[in-house]
Design a protein that fits this description.
Elements lengths: L2 H9 L4 E2 L5 E5 L2 E5 L18 H10 L4 E2 L1 H8 L3 H13 L3 E4 L6 E4 L2 H11 L5 E6 L8 H11 L4 E4 H8 L9 E5 L5 H7 L3 E2 L6 E5 L10 E3 L2 E3 L2 H9 L5 H13 L2
Parallel strand pairs: 9-11
Antiparallel strand pairs: 1-2, 2-3, 4-6, 5-6, 7-10, 7-11, 8-9, 12-13
Helix pairs in contact: 2-5, 3-4, 7-9, 9-10
Length: about 260
């Protein structure tokens, strides 16, 4: 059961027990609450929606009207056919995805986008490396544009994310103190910092360069306003991690652009 589902049921006064060991039972004079293990057990037949498996989930979320053959999904997401099949079959078993046909011609179509989105957000984990830097800029509101322009001049693949990205496509906050950018995994962050005239710092950064193996955060990035942005699902995920009004930004993005 997803965290969102557990919270919603708790608000309605309904007790829950799930297979992950999460328990919340409340009766007159009795409250029992146990939080299960954060990491779910893995098996050959179960594909947790993290790492490369997340690319299958995001592909479906970003094109909810499309039906997929396993081979098409594997090629589009850049994963093996076996992994694509395991992820899709798990989602079919959860009744989040519907299947039609048989054999190689079988197609899968997303029927519960909100449920898939919540499940992906709960299960996905990054192992990112963060490199805090400070860059002088004429005005704070121009900082994100300056960072993107300099990264492109340096020939570095990137994706703008977090509050700075949301402020440009679905504004909700008036100020963005820190610009967060995903860099391609092969980039040397120290060299990139020098290329964009940013100084590496240990505190008080206004630009944070991030990297993840396999370039998963750059998947399905989009071109907007003359810069590369992380896809909207990734923007939601990244925004939630910001303790300063991050959830507010993420919820606004979900309502305005994601829509489920």
């Amino acid at each position: 059961m997803t965290e969102g589902a557990r919270t919603a049921l708790a608000e309605e006064g309904i007790g829950t027990i799930d297979g992950l060991g999460n328990v919340r039972l409340e009766l007159p004079g009795l409250l029992v609450r146990l939080d299960g293990a954060a990491r779910r057990p893995r098996s050959k037949t179960r594909a947790t929606l993290s790492g490369k498996s997340s690319l299958v989930a995001q592909a479906m979320l970003l094109d909810t009207a499309r039906s997929w053959h396993v081979a098409e999904m594997a090629e589009y997401a850049g994963v093996s056919p076996a992994l694509a099949h395991r992820v899709l079959q798990r989602l079919v078993d959860l009744e989040i995805v519907a299947s039609q046909g048989a054999g190689p011609s079988k197609q899968r179509r997303l029927v519960e986008p909100s449920a898939l989105f919540d499940l992906w957000v709960e299960e996905h984990h990054d192992r990112s490396r963060r490199h805090p830097t400070f860059m002088l800029a004429a005005a704070a509101e121009d900082l994100a544009a300056t960072v993107c322009r300099r990264l492109e001049s340096a020939g570095v693949s990137y994706a703008l994310t977090g509050a700075a990205a949301i402020a440009r496509i679905a504004p909700v906050l008036t100020s963005v103190p820190v610009v967060e950018v995903w860099l391609e995994a092969v980039a040397d962050p120290s060299a990139v910092s020098a290329e964009i005239s940013a100084e590496e710092v240990t505190s008080g950064p206004n630009v944070v360069l991030q990297q993840e193996r396999d370039d998963i955060p750059l998947a399905y990035r989009t071109r907007r306003h003359g810069a590369w942005f992380a896809n909207v699902c990734r923007l939601y995920f990244d925004a939630r991690r910001n303790p300063q009004r991050g959830q507010e930004q993420a919820d606004h993005l979900r309502r305005e652009l994601i829509g489920f």
